[in-house]
Amino acid sequence: GDLHIINKDLSPDGFKRSTVLAGASANKASFPGPIIKANKGDTFEINVIDELTDPSMDRSTSIHWHGIHQHHTIWADGPTWVTQCPIVPKESFQYKFSVPDQAGTFWYHSHHRAQYCDGLRGAMVVYDPYDPYKKLYDVDDENTIITLSDWYHNTSTFLIQQPGPKIADSTLINGLGRWSNQPNGQLAVVNVEKGKRYRMRLVSLSCDPSYTFAIEGHNMTIIESDGQSTEPLAVDSLQIFAAQRYSFVLHANQPVGNYWIRANPSLGTSGFAGGINSAILRYKGAPNKEPANNATSPNGKLLNETDLRSQRGVPGKPVPGGADLVLNMTIGFIAPDTFTINDVPFVSPTTPVLLQILSGAQKPEDLLPSKSIYPLPRNKTIEINFSLSDPAGAPHPMHLHGHHFSVIKSADSQQYNFKNPVERDTVAVKANTTVAIRFRTDNSGPMFLHCHIEWHLVAGLAVILAEDTGDVRTENPVPPDWNKLCPNWNNTPADI
Ligand code: C2O
């Protein structure tokens, strides 16, 4: 189908601003964007049409389908200057890709500069008709998707130019929230019926903060992390970092009533803790009002990532470094506003890396930006060790395109797990500890690896893994309109 990208004034928290939105038609454009749904095995064909007009923001765009591997279609992955040129105003581009072996909870967002912070973000679900966990829940539909996001009253274009941390003005759940000057605005309501079990799909659309998430009076049995099934694990609350997803089963087994859905942001006070509250879980038959209990902090058992178990093993040998290739990546910070990996800030090339590869540059040393490119051979086990040079550095949710990975050492533990650690596509790297991941190289193309705090990405916290460059051309046939994107771009330098 079509996805129109438009500018529109919106006030999801009571403050009106110009935004960048997606919709099946221009007048259906919304925040969050429309839920994109498919079944395992389906092919997506999404025609993205750039109808942006607001001169105060960037008018180019592109969309990334976060968590989708893009085997044989790496040209449809989305990050501008990595796998494509931006789509310019009045142009369109068709993303076509299939999901033969993936199911779960994903999302999509602009991958052009920090544009998704202006609104271009939404949930995407790939249902598995043969989900082995089906017997654990009764309901799994559009109403069981819960999106969390930070919301800013200024445009990303403006915020990027301001030095220092950018603090969101509000926390939105399913696109609704309250700003401190508008403490009585409408909140999202998630409706349940007593006795039923719901597969809730929690999606962080965040540009920056993590959220400590809980539902008053209910526990959550986690069954999925970032599109990978886990062994069921019951917790009372969890911390979800930017771009991560969880599915959990919620059993509506409490007295009929209203219960707070709490999302406490790691930055700022505009979530539950600020007294502005977050969203409401409402049982059928309960009065149309807010929960009475206003306790500010969720309590009970907080998820420790190390307790999450996948159902698959880990590639490589069960010792640290037991992989074909080990890469160490140290995250650094240069005041006031530059981030580095192994001392190099990522600077976007002016020709997409994929185009460089297809034009004949196959050796990593020929690719730009050369100091940020790490070659990966095909059919090997890769281990990456992340650490932070700054002991006061914020947790960085590191995301790898084209793969999911096993978290053999989480920031939540000193121990390695080589047997059945959680698998995901975005992992939090924290100060004073190492986080180690493993995956097999079974894809080909330039894979972006970056911090999913958008302000850090635009400040350099990224590298590119050039995977199996020799096979990119034969493995990823590009459609003619992919080729057309770049000359158009060069003709409109005003949109840089
Ligand atoms: Cu969801 Cu490169 O990002």
From TrEMBL:
Residues 29-129, 142-286, 347-469 form the Plastocyanin-like domain. Keywords: Copper, Disulfide bond, Glycoprotein, Metal-binding, Oxidoreductase, Signal. The keyword Oxidoreductase applies. PANTHER family: LACCASE, MULTI-COPPER OXIDASE. The keyword Glycoprotein applies. This is Laccase. It comes from the Eukaryota. Belongs to the multicopper oxidase family.
